[in-house]
Write a structure and sequence with these properties.
The protein has about 160 residues and is mostly helical. Helix content is about 75%, strand content about 0%. The longest helix has about 30 residues, at about 125-155. The two termini are about 20 Å apart.
Length: about 160
Amino acid sequence: MKYLIIILSFLLESIATNIVNKSSLFIPLFLLTSLVFLYPYFNNKKENFIITTSICGLIYDISFTNSIFINTLSFGICGIIIIKIYNYINNNMFNSSFLNIIILIMYRIISYLLLCIVNYTSFDESILLKGIYSSIIANVIYGIVIYLVTKFIYKKSKIKGIE
C-alpha cells in the first residue's frame, strides 16, 4: 500500500508541476512529503526506507531535473534525517507535519548546497529562501491529507506504524 501512495504522489506531483507556475507559493514536493508520512509504516526497516527514498530521488532526478544524482543524494540524506527524528517523536499529525516542514527545509538546503558545490548555481540566499517558503504551504496541506488517508487505510487493514 505504501508504494501505491508513493506512485500516486509522484503522479500527482507530475500533474501539479505542469499546472503550477514556478513563481507560485505552492510548489509541490509531494513525493518527499509522502515519504515523511509513510516512514512509520516501514516498520523500522531502515535500510529499506533509505533505499526507497534514494530510488524516489533518482526517479525525481530523471523526471523533473537535469541534475542527475543531486536529488538521489538529497532524498537519501532526508531519509536518514526522517529516521533519526522519528526515533524521538510520536507518530501524530502535529509531529509529522512539523517533521515535514523540517524535511522540506533540509531538502531545499541540501539540494541547493549540492548545486553550489558542482557549480550549477552560485549561492544566493534569496533564491534559497524563496525555494523554502514556496514549498511549505502546499506540502503541509498534502501531508495532512496523506496522514489522514494512511491512518484510515492502515487502521482499517490493522497494520501498525510507529505510535
